[in-house]
Amino acid sequence: LLPKVSDLAALFAAFGLGAGAAVATLLAVHAVSAAFLMLGYRTRLATVVAWATWVVLKNSMLSYTYGIGAMLLIALFYCLFMPVGREWSLDRALNPPPPEAPAGDASLSVLMFRLHMCIVYAAAGFSKVVGDQWWSGDALWRALTLPQFRQFDPAPLAAWPGALVAASLVTIFAQLLYPVLVWTRLRAFIVVLAELM
User: Fold this and answer.
1) 155-to-135, 142, 145, 147 alpha-carbon distances in Å
2) Which end of the chain has fewer beta carbons closer than 10 Å to its terminal beta carbon, N or C?
3) What are the backbone dihedrals phi and psi of residue 17, each rounded to the nearest 5 degrees, phi first?
4) Residue 76 burial (C-beta neighbours within 10 Å; 0-12, 13-18, 19+)
């Protein structure tokens, strides 16, 4: 039921424009809104537009169905409600709050996002633990060789099967340890490791 690029193309066709124009427009709008969100300019509007365009992109293209696409959608959804433009943003620099204005508390939204990430990583880790494909490195090899996710030629890695097993084990343990370490002083380490995955 979610909108797709094909729905947008049909709308553009009513105005005599082709599917290429629909895709280019969607990507351009998403890129501009993502840039505004990153800079913190018109943050609330940029967040809504970036989330809405990402929903269409993720629902339309197979390459966005991998984990990072889902994680980005989750993060953008939380940004709809979080005070993301409150600090380090152009919005704040252009319109600073009065000195006596309360800063507001982002701790609840940060806590909710952190809990959500703990559930996601714990579930992913437990699902990997129960199968033997992750323990042998086979699942990682498959992920690297799938045509839609292929970023480089993984053939040289076949000469180093131990490296695939080691990387698979690091993935399993990082996902299982994330819900524990994210609450400790090792938070930065585990978040960076999760981002690298």
Assistant:
1) 20, 12, 9, 13
2) N
3) -105, 150
4) buried
Q: Report the predicted TM-score, pTM, of the whole model to 2 decimal places.
A: 0.71
Number of H helices, E strands in the chain: 10, 0
What amino acid is encoded at 142 in this protein? R
- Residues shown for the chain: 197
- Cα 162 to its chain centre, rounded Å, is 29
Please write the tens of the pLDDT for every residue from 157-184.
888 888 888 989 999 999 999 999 999 9
Residue 58: which of 140, 2, 125, 16 has the closest Cα?
2
Q: 83-96 as b/e, with b when 16 or more CB fall inside 10 Å?
A: bbbeeebebeeeee
The secondary structure of 106-173 as a DSSP string is -HHHHHHHHHHHHHHHHHHHHHHHTSSHHHHTHHHHHHHH-GGG--S--GGGGG-HHHHHHHHHHHHH
Residues with pLDDT less than 70, the chain:
62-66, 101-106, 149
For residues 66 and 155, give the distance between their C-alpha atoms in angstroms, rounded to a whole number.
Answer: 21
Nearest one of 142, 172, 147, 169 to 157, comparing CA atoms: 142
The encoded tokens of residue 37 equal: 């969100």
